[in-house]
């Protein structure tokens, strides 16, 4: 679990190290506000962070608008959860004319909270519980 966190922070450090003190802030787009907070904590003044969701929307049913598409297109990095939580982001990434866009999916390489058999059959998260930030060991 902690290996994925190290990889995430190494990616951020690598991107931050690409410029000098006078370089512009790194534009990072996240899917949910908690990820925006994590990126701000790591990047500090070196990042300009925008969360596509503001906290009151349901990430499972979110419908991005043209402003969201533009934010992804202008970003240097997108940080997402994965596990189907932010599947709608795939279209924004595909349509962004930004070949240098780095996409970090935090659920890759993380031990996922498994759903019970009953939850699985009631249409819950088939890939596992994507709310990984709620697990203190993962967060």
Automatic annotation (TrEMBL):
Xref: PANTHER family: HIGH-AFFINITY ZINC UPTAKE SYSTEM PROTEIN ZNUA-RELATED
Start and end residues of each stretch annotated as Disordered: 119-139
Gene Ontology molecular function: any one: metal ion binding
Keyword terms: Signal, Transport
Family: Belongs to the bacterial solute-binding protein 9 family.
Superkingdom in the source lineage: Bacteria
Entry protein name: Zinc ABC transporter substrate-binding protein
Keyword check for Transcription regulation: no
One annotated GO biological process: cell adhesion
Keyword Protease attributed: no
Composition skew (Basic and acidic residues), residue ranges: 119-129
PROSITE patterns: PROKAR_LIPOPROTEIN
């Amino acid at each position: 679990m902690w290996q994925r966190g190290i990889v995430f922070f190494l990616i951020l450090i690598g991107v931050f190290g690409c410029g000098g003190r006078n370089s512009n802030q790194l534009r990072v787009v996240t899917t949910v506000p908690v990820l925006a907070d994590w990126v701000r904590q790591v990047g500090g003044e070196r990042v300009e962070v925008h969360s596509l969701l503001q906290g009151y929307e349901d990430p499972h049913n979110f419908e991005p608008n043209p402003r969201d598409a533009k934010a992804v297109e202008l970003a240097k990095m997108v940080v997402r959860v994965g596990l189907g939580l932010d599947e709608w982001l795939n279209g924004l990434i595909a349509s962004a004319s930004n070949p240098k866009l780095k996409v970090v999916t935090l659920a890759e390489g993380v031990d996922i909270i498994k759903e019970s058999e009953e939850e699985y059959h009631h249409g819950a998260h088939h890939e596992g519980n994507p709310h990984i930030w709620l697990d203190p060991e993962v967060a």
